[in-house]
């Protein structure tokens, strides 16, 4: 029974091994044909009674705009690529998804329908670093709001008299947090909106610069600019630059390696690298790394050689003593038996 059981497991293992990469491939293919929902106006939260238009973008059959729309997981309409709510009700809150003829279902968009006096509207609640974020402090029935203040984690960051919109063209990790706004309505009444949680995901982690071990003068040294986690976006091409102090060693290359062909003592110093997206919108810098190149006259080199000579010398001495002793013993034995 043992060989059969083992065979079974082998088959399972083989099947798993074959299945995993195939699955990964399918995943990355379907990713590119995922439908995408956009909102017009762009806000994912609205007041009751306001209108919202959803648009779906994805590959379809030529001349056939047929698009499926889902609300809270159930199919609500199969018509065309736009779906409109002329007067949103509380029941229109929830999760929306769409699917065109040749796409897979889009990522969900969470619509919130609110009541109240002041609403902080956002263009999305979850971002990948680099995407734009728009904020709007919006009054009930479009009533004018004055002295608008936007807050991130309860700290005010923008004060304006006229406009009640604020744009962050490129989000980064510092934009994570809970946002709200306040403003004056009619008769100078102060209103404060509810908080909205904004999440920004890192597109790629900051790089770390490492050097190959050898650091004796005359030897090559390899520097490597490594990104620990794979980027959020599959297939994202990063560009790497290498620096020593203020000096650029190698600029904007897809290779994350840099080689010092023959290291000299002058190559000792502070090194760092940068990883950037193709458009250069997101650039991340590694911590500095100290590289020490030891020359033949350096104390380290001296100690290293001193240590080697001392070890070899000691071994030689011990050997000699042993040899002499063995020779003597042999001679004594010979004398005894012959
Ligand atoms: C979708 O259908 C609606 C109603 O039939 C129509 O008013 C609208 O123009 C259509 N939109 C597109 C993009 O074809
Ligand atoms: C959809 O889900 C949201 C939130 O879970 C809920 O508020 C809303 O009433 C639901 N609407 C329908 C029609 O199921
Ligand atoms: C459009 O495609 C859908 C399937 O996605 C199909 O049900 C429908 O009949 C097609 N309409 C036309 C006019 O070809
Ligand atoms: C607030 O934001 C608006 C629009 O982005 C800008 O014009 C204004 O200068 C900002 N005010 C302050 C105090 O930062
Ligand atoms: C994040 O973006 C803000 C501007 O919106 C900028 O001032 C800040 O330096 C950026 N932070 C990082 C870590 O890139
Ligand atoms: C350094 O890089 C070169 C070229 O990429 C490679 O041939 C060599 O083996 C590397 N050396 C070390 C110590 O990693
Ligand atoms: C990147 O570096 C490699 C070798 O270091 C070089 O052959 C290539 O031309 C460089 N590419 C660019 C765009 O500079």
Mean pLDDT: 84
| Name given to the CATH homologous superfamily of the largest domain | Immunoglobulins
Rg calculated over all Cα atoms: 34 Å
- Low-pLDDT stretches are 1-30
Shape: elongated
Provide the structure class: alpha+beta
Q: Main beta sheet, described?
A: 6 strands, mixed
- Ends: how far apart? 69 Å
CATH architecture of the largest domain: Sandwich
Total strand count, please? 25
What is the count of DSSP helices, taking H or I runs of 4+ residues? 2
Order of helices and strands: HEEEEEEEEEEEEEEEEEEEEEEEEEH
Can you tell me about this structure?
- It is a single chain.
- The protein is built from two helices and 25 strands.
- With 338 residues, it is of the alpha+beta class.
- It folds into three domains: 34-114, Sandwich (Immunoglobulin-like), CATH 2.60.40; 116-201, Immunoglobulin-like (Sandwich); 208-291, Immunoglobulin-like.
- Strands 10, 12, 13, 15, 16 and 17 form a six-stranded mixed sheet that branches.
- The radius of gyration is 34 Å and the shape is elongated.
- One 2-acetamido-2-deoxy-beta-D-glucopyranose is lined by residues 212, 222, 257, 259.
- InterPro entries: Ig-like_dom, Ig-like_dom_sf, Ig-like_fold, Ig_Fc_receptor, Ig_sub, Ig_sub2, Immunoglobulin_dom.
- It holds the Pfam family ig.
- This is High affinity immunoglobulin gamma Fc receptor I.
- Belongs to the immunoglobulin superfamily. FCGR1 family.
